[in-house]
Amino acid sequence: MTESPTPHLEYGVTSIEVMASMSGLDFVRGIFARALPEPPIMENVEPFDCTAEPGLVVIHSVPGLRHYNPIGSVHGGYAAILLDSAMGLAVQTMLPAGSGYTTLEFKISFIRGMSKDTGTIRTEGRVLNAGRRAATAEARITDDKGKLIAHATTTCLVFEIPKNA
To answer: Above pLDDT 70, what percent of the chain?
Structure first.
């Protein structure tokens, strides 16, 4: 039996026209399926095994030595990238074609540190409320034993993408 090739990982930004033509769920699933470019910010965390359902995004990643800060643990920015991405993409899954979002604010609480020995972590973003103008979401990072590492909440502005963007 021949293994199917792994889709080529390409980092880049999808055009506004393409994004606006798709439902938010199709857009996020397109990124996760590697049919659309992976956002460049994700090159820093190299996610894998990502899934999207309406209002829910799950991202798996492995922290490594390259994510360390000067005090010898994984930098909080690593968690911030994953939490902000999971919450924002969860919001995106709820949007109709022609709509977009941007993060207005988010808050992170760090519960325990990560190291290169933490292993695979799971970041789950979930929409709390998606309205016409604003959406709220939460996210959690857990280790492979289900222990909470960090959690966050966000408020996002929802808007119509200009037709001639």
So the answer is: 94
Strands 134-142 and 121-130, by their bridges, are antiparallel
Q: Are 106 and 154 in contact (CB under 8 A)?
A: yes
CA distances (Å), 11 to each of 8, 14, 43, 50, 143, in order? Answer: 10, 10, 7, 15, 26
**Average pLDDT for 150-158:** 98
Look at the block and give the residue holding tokens 């033509």: 21
CB 147 within 8 A of CB 103: no
pLDDT digits (tens, 9 = 90+) for 59-79: 999 999 999 999 999 999 999
The half-sphere exposure of 112 on its side-chain side, counting CA atoms within 13 A, is 11
> For the chain, which domains are there?
16-160 (3.10.129.10)
